[in-house]
Structures are given as C-alpha cells and as structure tokens.
C-alpha cells in the first residue's frame, strides 16, 4: 500500500510540474492571465507531493518491505535502522527521488517566500524550475521507478554490503544533491531573468542565497570526500585529479565564480551577462559531473558504475536543459546590457579578474578530464593526471591568489593601488619572509617540486591579507557578511598552507618490521609491539599494535588494521591516524613478509589536517554570509510588511 | 577511483574496487615493492616517478598508491632501475614503449596531445582578451 | 561613456554563441564516446617488435623454463600468460588444449605463482604447455607490455611479437588466432 501511495504521489507531482510549466509559460505570453495565480500554489503542492513520495520510500526501507524490488536489492533486514534508512537514497532510483524531492521543496520555498522579483520573472523562474524537475520525474517514472513491486517478494534483501555501512557514505550523497539542487534553482532564476530580460540587482539578490547555500554544501562535500579518500584508501593521498573528483570540483569552481559575480550584480548592478552565463554554467557542470560519473564514459572511472541507458537519459536531459539554456542565452544576451562600468583598479575589477581565473581553471579541469575521450576517437589512450593539472592550474591559481589578497581592500567602482599600498606592506613582508625561509630549507626539485613552495609563500601572504578588511573597523559592528568573507578567504589560506606543506615535507617510511622493532619516520619513533587478530561483527582483522612517540615525548598507541570481510569476501585496510596540532602520523599495516616481519607503511604528514580545517572554514564563512544575507532580507521583509500594514490600516 | 563522487558511485552499486580474495596471488611482494631505497635522494626520485605512472590493473591510480600486485611489481622495477642509476625519464620512456602513453600521467607533446598544451594558452589569450575588453572601456571614466 | 553610465555595449554575437558551440563540441564528443565505447584493455605497444631478452626458471618440475631464445627458432609459437590464481585462465584452458591438439606449440609464463599451485592448476585444467617460465615479479610481463592475465601473444619464428589477445580465448576466437599463427608461419 505504501509503495502505491508513493508512486501515486510521484505521478501527481509530475503532473503538477507539467501544469506549473504550462501555466507559467502561458501566463508569460499573456494569453492566460487567469492562470497566473495558480503557479505558486501548484509549485507548493508539487513540493509536498514529492516529499510524500520520498517519505513513502523511507517508510518502505525502514520496515524492509521485501515485496518492493528496490528494497530487496539494496537493503537487508539485519541492517541497523540508520543504514536501512540511508539505503533508501544509496541507490540510483532512490537518489533520483531524493533529487526531485529536494528540487520540489526548493521550488515550493521559492514560490512561498520569494517576493522581490517582478511577477513575470518569478513566473518564468517557476516555469523553468518545473521544466527541470519534469525531466527528472520522467527519468524516474519511465526508466527508474523506485516503487516497483516484486512478485513473489524476496525472502531476504541483497544489501548487506558491510563496506557501504558507513555513516559518511550515508550522508555524502544528500550533501552533494543539496548543492546541485541549489544550483538548479540558480539556473531557473537565470532562465527566468533571461526570458523577461530583467537581469538586475533584484534578480541577483533573489538568486544569491541559493548560490551561497549550494556552494556551502559543495564545499563541505568536497572537503568530506577528500578526507574520506585520505583515510580510507590507505596511501595517504587527499586529491588525485581523478575524473570523478574533477566531476565534483567543476560545479564548485563554477559556483565560486557565480557567488562572487552575483554579489557584484546585487550591489553594483554590473556583470549582468556574465552572471547569467555562470548561472547556466554552474548547473551545467553539476549535470555534466553526474553524467560523467553515471555513464562511465571515461575509461578511468569505475567500470562498475556503467549503465549506458541511464547515462543516455542524463545526456538527453543535459542536452535539453543546457542546449536550451545556451540557445536562449545566445538569443537574449545580445539584448541585455552589461550593466554599470568600472575601472580596472576597483573591487569589481579584482572580482572580474578572479572570476575569469576561476573560469579558466574550470576550463582546464573540464578539458583535461575529457581529453582522454578525445584521443579515443583516434583509437589511442592517454592519461591526464596530477603532473598536468597541477602546473597548468597553477598558471591561473597563482595570479588569482595574489589578486585575492588585494581585492577585498579595494573600493567599488574606482580605486588606486597607491591608497592601499601602505596596508599591503604587512603581507608583502610576510611573503618575503616565507620566501627566505623556504629558500633556506628547501632543495630545488624541478618545476613540479617548486609548486608547494610557491603555495607556502602565497598562503602566508593570503593569511594576513585576508584579515586586513577588518582593520580599523568596529569588530562588533562589522556585518556578518564581511566576517563570512574574511573567514572564507582565511580558510583558503589555511587549506593552501596544509596542501603545500604536506606536499613539500611529508615523510614516507615503508618497512618490514619484526615485533619489538622500532622504526623512525620524520620526528616520530614507532615501535611494533605486537600483531593481534581482532574479531569484528562480519570481518576478522589483523591489528598492529604500534607505540608512537613524537621527538621522544609521551607515547600513544596506534592500531591500524587489515580487515577481511566474509560476505562478500573483501579486504580493506583501516589506516590509523595520530593527530597532533602540527600534523598527523598515518599508519597502515600490510601483508606478512616471509620471515615473520610485517609490512608497515608510515607517513608523517605535517599540517595535513589544515587542508580539511581550511575547507570547513570556507564553508563556515559561506554560512556566516548566508545568515547575514537572510537576516537582512527578513528584517527588510518585516519592515516592508509593517509599512504595508500601516498603509492598509490608514486606508481603512 | 578516488574521492568524492566516488562515494556516491559506491553507494549506488556493488563495488568491485576491492579485488575479491580468490583472484589474488599468494607470492610475497617483489623486492622494493613495499621497500624503499636506502639512499633518500634516489628514493625521492623513484617516488616522484612512481606518482606519475599509471597502475594498469586499477585504471585510475598511480602505482605509488595502489595495492595491486602488478603495481607492486612496477614499483619494484622502477626502484631497481633507479638504484642501478637509470634516469627517471628513461624508465618512463621504456614503459611508454611497452604500454603507450596511457601508462604515464605526464602528457608528452605528441601529434595527439598538443591540444593539452595549446588549449591552456588559448584560455590565457581568451582571458586576457576578455579582461582587456572589459577594462579598456571602463578604465577611462 | 562614464563609469557611472549604464554600459550600453553589447557583447559581440560571436561571443554570445561561443558557449553553445563549446557545448555542442562536448555533446558530439560524448555521443561518440557512448556510441563506440572504448575498450578498457590496455594494448601492448610491442606488436611488431622483437621480444625482449629474458630467461625464466621452470615454473613446474616436469617442463623446462622459458627464455627468449626459445622463441626465435624459426617456428611461430603461442605464448600464454597465465596464473593459477586467475579464475578466467581455467576457462580458456580447453581452447589452449584444442590449439595444442592441432599441433600448435604453446608456451606459458606463470605470473607470480608457486610451483605447487601451478602443478595443481595444470592437473585440474590440463597442460598444453611445452615450456613454462615462472615470472615472479612480472618482469617479462612488463617487458612485453602485457597488463593482466590471461593474455596470449603470437610470436613469429624470429621472435617478433605479431599479435596480442587480451583476456580469455573463447571458442569463437580460435579462427582468428589460427589465422595469426598462419601469418606468423609465412
């Protein structure tokens, strides 16, 4: 029964999305003014129905209803409840349903609360949103019905894969989806504004919180994913420029650029076309990323994810949305003026420069990721990896960070370097100091080897420069949005410092150690005290009992494991981490060597934690800005409401 | 198969990332597969090279961070050759002769890969053009 | 035009359509990629080149080992790369038997394997090999550009690698392999 309710709700939601699209479009053309009033309520009910469908799916998973195919394939009665629930979106159909649900709710939210935009733009936006949702509804209902019944019901579920029972895994996909859906709302706003040619500050202000929100989730998603790869994969790497990682980085780069240009548009009414363009590009990148991952089109990406039918479906949606949006852009952009002008040396100038740099990096990442596909046309395989992305990305990243130090100090419209030169002395001195230190202790290891040292110098300068906007300000009265900017920029410096120092100064030690032996890695002494078998719920592990001491100080136990699961038979390494303020000791146990020795892999990774700490700071900075913006919007809304009330009461 | 969306992918399907136990050999790893060279300078050269060579069994990992036995054998080759005084680029060339450009993450400049070098330059030019157009007008006023 | 003023300049028509053009290129590329999915096999770049020099110890007691000189004696050979721990290798064993029964000399290289395991594997699946070399550190495998097991190479009488078959030899692959062997004999 629950499954049928869910399916019915899904069909109804899809029908309402169609209605929303038709009503919205008709009222735009002015042919059906009477329909205008229906668009907002329809959007709200559509969101509610999608939520109902999703709730039905959660309920089916929570009670492990094995007569539903999806449940039988992806869950198991013996799973802990939290993983049963997480299994609801831990599969293709469920994740698509989650996507349309979040999208429907976002649409409902916009319909209910967004009152700043001209009504026409609003209708166009909601029609655009319905258009995007409709594609996903079609995808679900035609080719991936999550509520399909199984007759006869399965005896037991299939989804007891222990490797997937990870709390990080359970919440990672929803985080990304929130980011993607936020970008889809921004996309709809961009379409709405293009259709009505009303690309102005009001549009930017309506779009901004969605971009900010999406960007926060994407930042968190990338940060968490990087940390997961770091501790789970057992080799201590935190970024590999793998196509799948790049697929997640591209929407983030576009969203970062969009975030900044939408701010310029909101406060200065400049960069109109550029902002609309980025709004389209950001959502395109999340679709492109999803497509690349799902279709398995890139040789390197997970052969096991390949599903050509679904890949093609996403490609069709991609073609309709993005091709359509870019055609609309081509038709309309020439009739939208660029907005207010500004000087090269100005806040806008710096923002534009960095926007272009971010877009260039995005271009490089996209091109490098797709290039192997190009050579396959000529029947040759090539690999594009870190040795390409690092230096080529740096060409754009380095100037970007330099401008990032200066930009927030500049005034809007027109400024001069002479005015801020005095303030910049501090970061310049710090960078020169960092250069001296780095030159003093580093050996030259080619261009690639030099990059981390450039990173250290830039991070030092940016750390100070990012705080400078707070100088001579009453900190208590500094708006939250300024705090947000400062924190996010400081986060960039912190993360960059972590990446650069880790790359330049990590120490690796591979040893075959006997029990009782002590080995050293960087400043650490590590003693192998014993090897013990450890039983788990559905695995057995070999655990190394290590005793580590930093520079002869107090000792701590470190216990890496090598786990063997039974069903299905799989081996995983569980690395053990020992965190200090200045870095992490990373330990992995490998196989037993012939003569009773054990393979140990040890790394000392100075300041590596700053990478993710910086990522969290960046996201927090975004959150502060978002709170600041929304609070201001609410205050303004309340004030406007009061004025309206007063008018009303006076009129009576 | 690192990272982020990987999780998502992982959550969507049964992973075969962890090779089933049955298809693993039982020989101890090759010499230098899990051992470093004595000389830290040589080891650093070997490590730098290994990070740019692709593990052929695992599709999207370098041999420096893979547990696949073949990656271990490739590390063994690399370290032995470096220890014997061979230049890293000579070893890369040797591998490319056997597996084609696929084995190296560092693209060479060839008839097929020139766009990898040209496109960044084009992007620089495009960015410069965009910025110039933008500011030539605004700069005066 | 002052900086205060509303910028009335329009971006050039070319620039406006550039994003759609780039998207079109992307779309064409992935359509092509989807329509003709690239094989995931890594082909050896050694086809047409001579085998590298090697000499491998015997992998089992009752067959001699294998060295490169055994493969340039004027007659073509089928070189099979296998391992006892490789499950698909057992699947192609009957095809190797068939080839052997037709008078084709098959030599083998066992990758990262123990003599006992190889012997047990051959006892179970039949032994079509006249020589089996043991490659404990995949050195020869790397030397000939092979990236997995099973793989099979056709070597001509002068020790030149003529053909590489990646993966299991299925029944329907036999004619092609026979052709390649005939070509090698010419």
Strand runs of chain A, count: 11
**Greatest interface and its participating residue counts:** A-B, 94 and 67 residues
Listing every helix as H and every strand as E from the N terminus to the C terminus, the arrangement of chain A reads: HHHHHHHHHHHEHHHHHEEEEEEEEEEH
CATH fold-level label of chain C: Glutaredoxin
Strand elements of chain C, count: 8
Radius of gyration of chain A using CA atoms only? 27 Å
Shape of chain A: globular
Uncertain ranges of chain A: 300-305
Helix/strand/pairing class of chain C, anyone? alpha/beta
Question: Could you tell me how far the N terminus lies from the C terminus of chain C, measured between alpha carbons in angstroms?
Answer: 81 Å
**C-alpha termini separation of chain A:** 53 Å
Percentage of residues in helical conformation of chain A: 55-70%
Let me know the largest β-sheet of chain A: 6 strands, antiparallel
> How much beta of chain A, percentage-wise?
5-15%
Following the backbone from N to C, one meets helices and strands of chain C in this order, namely EHEEEHEHEHEEH
Work out the helix count of chain C: 5
* Rg from alpha-carbon coordinates of chain C: 26 Å
CATH architecture of chain C: 3-Layer(aba) Sandwich
Short overview:
The complex is a heterotrimer of chains A (652), B (141) and C (186). By secondary structure, chain A is α+β, with helices and mostly antiparallel strands.
């Amino acid at each position: 029964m629950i499954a049928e309710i869910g399916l019915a709700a899904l069909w109804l939601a899809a029908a309402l999305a169609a209605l929303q699209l038709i009503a919205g479009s008709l009222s735009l053309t002015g042919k059906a003014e009477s329909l205008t009033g229906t668009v907002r309520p329809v959007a709200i009910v559509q969101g509610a129905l999608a939520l109902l469908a999703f709730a039905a799916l959660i309920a089916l998973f929570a009670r492990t209803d094995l007569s539903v195919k999806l449940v039988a394939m992806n869950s198991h009665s013996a799973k802990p409840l939290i993983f049963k629930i997480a299994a609801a979106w831990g599969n293709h159909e469920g994740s698509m349903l989650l996507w349309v649900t979040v999208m429907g709710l976002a649409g409902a939210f916009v319909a209910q609360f967004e009152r700043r935009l001209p009504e026409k733009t609003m209708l166009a936006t909601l029609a655009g949103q319905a258009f995007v949702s409709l594609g996903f509804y079609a995808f679900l209902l035609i080719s991936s019905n999550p509520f399909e019944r199984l007759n006869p019901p399965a005896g037991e579920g299939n989804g007891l894969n222990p490797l997937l029972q990870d709390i990080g895994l359970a919440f990672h996909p929803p985080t990304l989806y929130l980011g993607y859906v936020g970008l889809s709302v921004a996309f709809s706003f961009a379409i709405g504004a293009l259709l009505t040619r009303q690309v102005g500050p009001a549009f930017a202000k309506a779009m901004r919180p969605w971009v900010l929100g999406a960007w926060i989730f994407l930042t968190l998603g990338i940060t968490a994913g990087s940390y997961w790869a770091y501790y789970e994969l057992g080799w201590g790497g935190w970024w590999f420029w793998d196509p799948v990682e790049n697929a997640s980085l591209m929407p983030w780069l576009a969203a970062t650029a969009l975030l900044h240009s939408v701010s310029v548009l909101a406060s200065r009414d400049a960069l109109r076309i550029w902002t609309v363009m980025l709004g389209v590009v950001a959502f395109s990148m999340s679709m492109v990323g999803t497509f690349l991952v799902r279709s398995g089109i890139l040789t390197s990406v997970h052969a096991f994810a390949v599903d050509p039918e679904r890949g093609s479906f996403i490609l069709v949606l991609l073609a309709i949305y993005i091709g359509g949006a870019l055609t609309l852009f081509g038709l309309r952009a020439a009739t939208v003026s660029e907005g207010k002008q500004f000087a090269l040396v100005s806040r806008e100038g710096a923002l534009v420069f960095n926007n272009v740099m971010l877009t260039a990096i995005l271009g490089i990442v996209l091109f490098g990721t797709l290039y192997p596909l190009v050579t396959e046309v000529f029947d040759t395989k090539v690999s594009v990896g870190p040795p390409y992305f690092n230096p080529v990305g740096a060409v754009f990243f380095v100037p970007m960070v330099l401008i990032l130090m200066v930009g927030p100090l500049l005034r809007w419209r027109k400024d001069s370097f002479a005015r801020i030169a005095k303030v910049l002395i501090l970061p310049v001195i710090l960078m020169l100091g960092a250069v001296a230190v780095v030159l003093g202790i580093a050996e030259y290891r080619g261009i690639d080897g030099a990059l981390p040292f450039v990173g250290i110098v830039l991070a030092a300068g940016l750390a100070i420069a990012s705080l400078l906007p707070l100088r001579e300000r009453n900190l208590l009265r500094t708006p939250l949005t300024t705090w947000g900017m400062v924190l996010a920029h400081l986060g960039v410096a912190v993360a960059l410092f972590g990446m650069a120092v880790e790359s330049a100064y990590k120490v690796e030690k591979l040893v075959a150690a006997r029990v009782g032996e002590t080995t050293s890695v960087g400043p650490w002494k590590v003693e192998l005290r014993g090897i013990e078998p450890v039983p788990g719920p559905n695995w057995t592990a070999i655990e190394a009992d290590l005793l580590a001491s930093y520079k002869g100080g107090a000792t701590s136990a470190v216990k890496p494991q090598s786990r063997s699961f039974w069903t299905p038979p799989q081996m995983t390494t569980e690395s053990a981490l020992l965190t200090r303020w200045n870095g992490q000791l990373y330990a992995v146990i490998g196989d037993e060597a012939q003569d009773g020795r054990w393979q140990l892999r040890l790394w000392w990774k100075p300041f590596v934690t700053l990478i993710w700490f910086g990522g969290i700071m960046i996201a927090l900075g975004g959150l502060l800005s978002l709170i600041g913006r929304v609070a201001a919007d609410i205050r303004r809304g309340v004030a406007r409401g009061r004025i309206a009330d007063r008018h009303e009461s006076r009129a009576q | 198969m690192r990272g982020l969306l990987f999780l998502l992918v992982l959550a969507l399907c049964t992973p075969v990332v962890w090779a089933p136990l049955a298809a693993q050999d039982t020989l101890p790893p090759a010499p230098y597969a899990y051992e470093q060279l004595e000389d830290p300078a040589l080891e650093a050269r070997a490590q730098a090279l290994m990070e740019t060579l692709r593990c052929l069994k695992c599709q999207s990992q370098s041999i420096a961070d893979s547990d696949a036995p073949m990656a271990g054998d490739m590390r063994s080759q690399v370290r032995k050759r470096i220890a014997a005084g061979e230049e890293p680029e000579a070893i890369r060339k040797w591998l490319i002769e056997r597996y084609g450009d696929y084995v190296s993450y560092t693209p060479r400049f060839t008839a097929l890969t020139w766009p990898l070098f040209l496109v960044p330059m084009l992007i620089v030019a495009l960015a410069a053009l965009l910025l110039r157009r933008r500011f030539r007008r605004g700069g005066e006023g | 035009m002052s900086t205060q003023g509303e910028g009335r300049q329009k971006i050039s028509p070319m620039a406006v359509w550039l994003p759609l053009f780039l998207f079109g290129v992307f779309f064409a590329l992935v359509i092509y990629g989807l329509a003709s999915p690239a094989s995931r096999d890594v082909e050896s770049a050694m086809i047409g080149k001579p085998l590298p020099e090697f000499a491998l110890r015997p992998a089992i007691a009752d067959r001699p080992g294998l060295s490169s000189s055994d493969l340039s004696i004027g007659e073509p050979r089928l070189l099979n790369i296998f391992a006892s721990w490789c499950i698909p290798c057992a699947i192609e064993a009957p095809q190797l038997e068939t080839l052997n029964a037709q008078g084709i000399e098959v030599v083998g290289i066992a990758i990262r394997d123990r003599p006992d395991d190889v012997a047990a594997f051959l006892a179970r699946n039949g032994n079509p090999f006249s020589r089996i070399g043991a490659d404990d550190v995949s050195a020869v495998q790397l030397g000939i550009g092979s990236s997995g097991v099973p793989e099979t190479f056709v070597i001509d009488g002068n020790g030149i690698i003529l053909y590489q078959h990646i993966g299991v030899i299925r029944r329907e692959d036999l004619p092609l392999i026979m052709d390649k062997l005939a070509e090698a004999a010419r």
